[in-house]
Amino acid sequence: MDRLKIYVAGPYTPSGTDIHDAARVAHKNTIKAIKAGISIIKKGHIPFIPHLTHFIHLETEDPLPATFYYEYDMVWLQFCDALLYLGNSTGANRELRWAEQNGLKIFRSLDEIPIASTKLEIKINPQAK
After folding, report:
1. CATH of domain 5-15+22-112
2. Mean pLDDT value of segment 49-67
3. What is the CA radius of gyration of the chain?
4. What are the φ/ψ torsions at residue 109 (nearest 5 degrees)?
5. How far apart are the first and last CA of the chain?
6. Average pLDDT over residues 112-120
């Protein structure tokens, strides 16, 4: 299989969470998406991790509205070959529907993603945590 550009779709915004815990939950969701992206890289593919906008959100003095992030995600999804669906959320469900309607390959677990025939020529330090 050729190398795929794989969009990582999953929850970011905490729902039903104590407002004082929201930042921690969003951060945990971001870390989960990053780890999925690293696994995608190890399989030889190219991930797009929209959760990385978490850091834009943290560094923006005037918070951008949620609609900006939804639009941002949909713009980038159009350039992907596949979608990894990590779980239920408003944004991830919208991305999943769009991917299904537009013929993207859908993965529901990392185990479903095959190893690319043309792997990236990178070394990942197994000691780094």
Report:
1. 3.40.50.10400
2. 90
3. 15
4. -155, 160
5. 29
6. 86
What's the pLDDT at 128?
Answer: 60
- Tokens, residue 89: 């959320």
Task: Single out the residue of 35, 42, 48, 57 nearest to residue 119, CA to CA.
Answer: 42
Residue pair 3/44 in contact (Cβ under 8 Å)? The answer is yes
pLDDT at 126 over 70: no
SS3 readout for the chain:
CCCCEEEEECCCCCCCCCHHHHHHHHHHHHHHHHHHHHHHHHCCCEEECHHHHHHHHHHCCCCCCHHHHHHHHHHHHCCCCEEEECCCCHHHHHHHHHHHHCCCEEECCHHHCCCCCCCCCCCCCCCCC
Return the domain boundaries, the chain: 5-15+22-112
What amino acid occupies position 95?
E
CB 82 within 8 Å of CB 104:
yes
Residues 6+ apart with CB under 8 A from 127: none
